[in-house]
Amino acid sequence: MRVIEVMPADAGWMLRSDAIENALFFRSGASAESAAVRLAQGLAQAGESARVSIFIRDGSLARQFVVPFLGRLRPIAAPPLASLGTPSDRGPVGPGAERIASAV
């Protein structure tokens, strides 16, 4: 699991993570937090979970959350509509279909 932290810096806010080479600096905490969430979402899409920790000016932890990797979603393969044929090609279906077929 990757670690992403937002913490106060001298002239604003710093985002640091083991997922990026250098720390990023922001003037506002909201901008730093938004960037942290986007980084965590990008890591999750790339196959890694991330723990995001947000610290306030006094150094205490304001909030912490995990953005999990949920796995890749595979598309559901549906047969092409043409392969199903028309209702008359398939004949009667469902309960009692044999009685309907024999009556025709």
What level of helicity do the residues show? 25-40%
Stretches where pLDDT falls below 50 for ≥5 residues? Answer: none
Structural class: alpha+beta
Basic shape: elongated
Spatial separation of the terminal alpha carbons: 65 Å
Description:
By secondary structure, the protein is of the alpha+beta class. It has a domain at 2-67. The chain contains 3 helices and 5 strands, in the order βββαββαα. Strands 3-2-1-4-5 form a 5-stranded mixed β-sheet, covered by helices on one side. β2 (12-17) and β3 (24-26) form a beta hairpin.
Summarize the structure.
This protein is of the alpha+beta class. The protein contains three helices and five strands.
Protein topology:
Layout: E1 2-9, E2 12-17, E3 24-26, H1 29-45, E4 50-55, E5 61-67, H2 87-90, H3 97-103
Parallel strand pairs: 1-4
Antiparallel strand pairs: 1-2, 2-3, 4-5
Keywords:
five-stranded mixed sheet; 104 residues; alpha+beta
